[in-house]
Amino acid sequence: MRLALPPQDNIIQKEVRKLDRYVGIDVHQEFCHATVQDETGEVVKQGEFANSPKGFEEFFDGFDEAKIAIEAGDAWQPVYDWLDENGLDVKLAHPHKTRIIAEVKIKTDCRDSEALADLVRADLIPEVYVPCEGRRKLRRIAKQRGKLVMERTKFKNRIRAELRKRGIDVEGRSLWTNSGKSWLRELGIDQVTDFLEVIRTLNDRIKRLERKIKNIAGELKEARILMTIPGVSYYSALTIIAEIATIKRFPDSGKLCSYAGLIPSVRQSGSKEIHGSITGGRPLLRYTLTQCALNHVNNAKNSHVNKFYEKLRRKKPKKLALIAAARKLLKVIYWMLKLGEEFLGEGIRPEVPNSHHGVVTPSEFLRNLVHRHVFVELVHHVNPLSQIDVRVCKNCPCQIVESAFAVPAPIPPTARLPRRARERPRNRIEDTVHRPPIEALSALQNISPPKA
Questions:
Q1: pLDDT at residue 365, rounded to an integer
Q2: Which pLDDT belongs to residue 351?
Q3: How many CA atoms lie within 13 A of 446 on its CB side?
Q4: CA 186, CA 120: separation in Å to the nearest integer?
Q5: What is the DSSP string of 255-317?
Q6: pLDDT at 139 exceeding the cut of 60
Q7: Strand partners, 268
Q8: CA separation for the pair 107, 257 (Å, rounded)
Q9: Could you give the angle at the alpha carbon of 218 between the alpha carbons of 215 and 222, nearest 5°?
Q10: Please, is 138 exposed, middle or buried when counting C-beta atoms within 10 Å of its C-beta (0-12, 13-18, 19+)?
Q11: Bigger pLDDT: 446 vs 121
Q12: What distance in Å separates the CA atoms of residue 63 and residue 60, rounded to the nearest whole number?
């Protein structure tokens, strides 16, 4: 493998205007291969250079502005940081989606860099979100602790395997307490003794890392908010925050659940629709949320998340109910971070029963507003096809959406709601989450009317 810079005559270069540069870089551990195109797709510069600051400076000498694309891999971070610090517009491409868009039979470094340059020129890059350096540091810390715990678990399993080989029964005995470890050493098995020493070293590293994580979590407002949820520790809170990066990049809670991999897969064609198991997402985030949901339902019996879990467990398998509870917990986390509010176990504020500031569904929120406010002034007609109007209360700044198919018209507080209004409306938004009034209104504006 070549480590030195290639000769100058191996780099193809033509004159091109500064604002018409589109660059695709195929990044490797030791070197990079780049292709520069103009707005017509003609190659104006192409060649290899060392994957180092000196190599980048020589290749990009004279580049004031350019649009650059690189694929996400194990060596993308130094390349991305150098290009970003030098004021170049760089995008990180999703490797799998890039191959789907620009799959070729003959794969070379030259072809890969040309494909990336073509995609960035056509503005078709499947871009990956790149968090800030602070969030990337949190991710590294959270993953480091997770990997150390996984290694410790491997050595514990190896000790159990050695005991099974020798027919030693350990049922009812705790092996990882001080007395259990002393008993294991007294057995005089060399492999077990060596594994215990490795576990002791890993425990010291994990404890030191956990102290660091605890200090970081105590300084983050988002982590303190998440730690108000029963079953969410400082490590879980920090992991969730590090994986999410910023809640502002998710327009709704459903997008966040899809990002975490807690949404069932769907295969639909014509009138046939099949829902399968969860897939994709962020493995560490999904695992952390599942463990948090398990701890939550075991320790918060009066929580609305636990009530949802118990209700679903009576009809569905336990594992499926746990995944659904993790998804509901993530929706609650979304609105806690969005609004900066602590966890409400009952789903509503205790001092204001059934308040629309608590955790209620949009339809329940709107029905509560009908009873509590007098909505008299018609503001505007939102959607003539759906017959949705917006009214404001004369006593407060709250608003209400009036729809012929989803929400009953405003009536006096003493009157009884019709049976149709008490039933679950069609096309109802299902998530029981922290949601302010304006968010509920915005969501309902996109609901289409039921078929006749």
A1: 45
A2: 39
A3: 5
A4: 64
A5: HHHHHHT-SEEEEEETTEEEEEEE--S-HHHHHHHHHHHHHHHHH-TTSHHHHHHHHHHTTS-
A6: yes
A7: 273
A8: 35
A9: 135
A10: buried
A11: 121
A12: 5
Whole-angstrom CA distances from 355 to 337, 344, 367 are 19, 12, 11
Q: Report d(CA 225, CA 227) in Å as an integer.
A: 5
Contact present, 130 and 81 (Cβ < 8 Å): no
- Whole-angstrom CA distances from 209 to 12, 67, 154, 224, 407 are 49, 39, 19, 19, 52
Please report, for residues 88, 95, 284, the alpha-carbon distance to residue 43 in angstroms, rounded to integers and kept in the order given.
Answer: 19, 23, 41
Choose among 50, 58, 59, 10: nearest CA to 30: 50
Query: Edge-to-edge, what's the strand order for the sheet holding 399-403?
Result: 375-383, 388-393, 399-403
Q: Which of 282, 145, 163 is nearest to 205 (CA)?
A: 145
Q: Are 62 and 45 in contact (CB under 8 A)?
A: no
- The share of the chain scoring above pLDDT 90, in percent, equals 25
Instruction: Determine the Cα–Cα distance for residues 117 and 203; give it in Å rounded to an integer.
Output: 47
Q: Distance (Å, rounded) from C-alpha 400 to C-alpha 407?
A: 9
Place of tokens 């705790």: 174
- Counting Cα atoms < 13 Å in the Cβ hemisphere of 205 gives 16
Q: How far apart are CA 297 and CA 291, in angstroms?
A: 10
CA–CA dist 257, 293 (Å, integer): 14
Joined together, the tokens standing for residue 149 give: 């715990």
Q: Which residue has the higher pLDDT, 399 or 65?
A: 65
Q: How far apart are CA 137 and CA 282, in angstroms?
A: 17
**φ, ψ (nearest 5 deg) of residue 29:** -65, -40
CATH homologous superfamily of domain 8-121? ATPase, nucleotide binding domain (3.30.420.40)
Taking residue 251's Cβ as centre, other Cβ atoms within 10 Å add up to: 9
Q: How far apart are CA 231 and CA 296, in angstroms?
A: 5
How far is Cα 437 from Cα 444, in angstroms, rounded to an integer?
A: 11
Q: How far is CA 280 from the centre of its chain?
A: 11
How many CB atoms are closer than 10 A to CB 290? 20
User: Quick check: 222 pLDDT over 60?
Assistant: yes
Residue 78: is its pLDDT beyond 60? yes
68 contacts 90 by C-beta, under 8 angstroms: yes
DSSP 253-272: HHHHHHHHT-SEEEEEETTE
